[in-house]
Design goal:
9 helices, mainly alpha
């Protein structure tokens, strides 16, 4: 049960309804932090636009975006974020073995150079609040500067999502399957 009151569609203000409709149009549901963010429709609108951009419109291939999202979800123990993005990551081609290693926080990932560098970049940034010169150089060579900027903002956005999910104790909805038992 969420710590926030559940807003019902018939209770929404005009501004909330406009954002509600936009979220449904772009994502199909309010799963994740969107129902909580609707308590402030301007905030919800601005954050959902950023989320839509970093998830769907960057130069990063979807497999790399989903990899980064899973590392963020696991770092913050955000069960709902993980439950939503794990099946998406699989559909984008991330192997079950890599997903299991991320969940177990087993360190280095053996995969393509791009997967390995994104995993290292996200992990370093989350654990140390920095990225080493070596990892940054590798990411720059493999991904390019534009993608590094987009990846960094994606990490920040999904940290915001995780904070919102965790602070408001947003549950995994019944239609979303979660294989996880969080500590």
């Amino acid at each position: 049960m969420s710590r926030l009151s559940q807003l019902k569609p018939e209770q929404l203000t005009a501004a909330q309804k406009q954002v509600f409709d936009a979220i449904l149009a772009s994502r199909g549901s309010l799963a994740g932090p969107f129902a909580a963010w609707l308590h402030n429709p301007e905030l919800a609108n601005r954050t959902q636009h950023l989320g839509e951009y970093v998830r769907y419109r960057t130069s990063l291939p979807p497999i790399l975006s989903e990899l980064a999202i899973l590392v963020v979800a696991r770092h913050f123990n955000s069960e709902l974020e993980w439950a939503i993005h794990e099946p998406i990551a699989r559909r984008q081609g991330l192997s079950v073995e890599i997903i299991d290693r991320i969940f177990a926080e087993e360190g280095q990932i053996d995969s393509t150079p791009e997967v390995e560098v994104v995993h290292s970049y996200v992990t370093e940034l989350l654990k140390t609040n920095r990225v080493s010169a070596d990892t940054f150089q590798q990411a720059s060579e493999l991904l390019g500067e534009t993608s590094i900027v987009e990846l960094t903002v994606l990490i920040g956005y999904y940290a915001l999502v995780a904070f919102s999910i965790n602070a408001f104790q947003l549950p995994v909805p019944p239609e979303v399957t979660s294989r996880l038992e969080w500590e």
